Amino acid sequence: MFHAYAFVPVPPFLVYSVADRNGKIIHTTPIDLPRSVMMHDLAITGKYTLFLDAPVVMDMAGAMRGKPFKWEPKFGARIGVLPRHAAGDKVRWFEIKPCFVFHVFNAFEDGDEVNLYGCRYPKYPDLANLIPQAANDPGAGGAVGDIPIAYRWRLNLKTGKITEGALDEFDCEFPRIDDRLAGAKTRYGYGLSVSSGTAHVKFDFVKNTNERHDLGKGRETGEGVFVPRKDGKNEDDGYLISFVYDHAERQSEMAIIDCRDFKKSVIARVLIPQRVPNGFHGIWLDDDVL
To answer: To bridge 13 with a disulfide, which of 33, 170, 178, 289 should be the other Cys (CB 3.0-4.6 Å)?
Structure first.
């Protein structure tokens, strides 16, 4: 499941497609939007695909100055729910508090409800200055300034009711789960503390708790990828792996954290003889998959 959004002010502003396991596109449909917006991610459940229509609009004049996106909260925000292979005019929209979301953990169905977990910004962030700020956004459920936090939206398909709120006040980006469970109900998620750049976070969505693993001062890291243990018994039976750069040692490494004992020191450091540039996303493939 994937989507394309338009950079130019010519509809359709959103097109959604489905490809089969052989890479053949088996379904494509336009979805009507009132304006061209930046839509970075989507989510899936077993039956539906979810779209995030946030008020980050394309700004052609701003693009000439290197800033193609503009925050326009007056347009509001909403989540669209579309049956997997339905035409775009079958999308159902749920109005939510204005916000922006780059990345989602996961989505799943629970009775009449669709749950979406993601990292919510109270407004489109200044990406060059993601630091904690003093002013609270009263409507953000705990988010402050430009900082994203782990957040949940619950959409009742029967009543149309929306429930939303922060999972806690811990800043979080680059959310990940056990990828095998995408679209199914998940208990655990993993993220990065963007304000520190040195700490990973493990969330328990059932208990509404989190654990922090700090890699240490001067040790810069990025997105962690969950790697399931072979023959693992529980959802968190596996490892979180990320690239780390130690500024003092001028050394890149791959750090491995045991997700069952998340606060414990890394269980392995794979030293890398060359600097690994900072990046964004990754995926783990087992030998048998390759």
So the answer is: 33
pTM: 0.90
Q: Which of 12-26, 197-211, 250-264 is the least confident region?
A: 197-211
pLDDT tens across 204-236, in order? 999 989 999 999 999 999 999 999 998 899 999
In order of 7, 142, 269, the CA distances from 215 in angstroms are: 39, 25, 11
Rounded CA-CA distance 31/48 in Å is 14
Phi, psi of 74 (to 5 degrees): -60, -20
Task: Report the CATH number of the 192-290 domain.
Answer: 3.10.450
CA-based torsion, 271, 274, 275, 276: positive or negative: negative
Please report which confidence band the pLDDT of residue 145 belongs to, taking 50, 70 and 90 as the band edges: low
In the chain, residues under CATH classification 3.10.450 are 192-290
Is the torsion defined by CA of 22, 27, 31, 35 positive or negative? positive
For residue 207, count other CB atoms closer than 10 A to its CB.
Answer: 8
Q: What is the dihedral of CA 58, 62, 65, 67, to 10 degrees?
A: -50
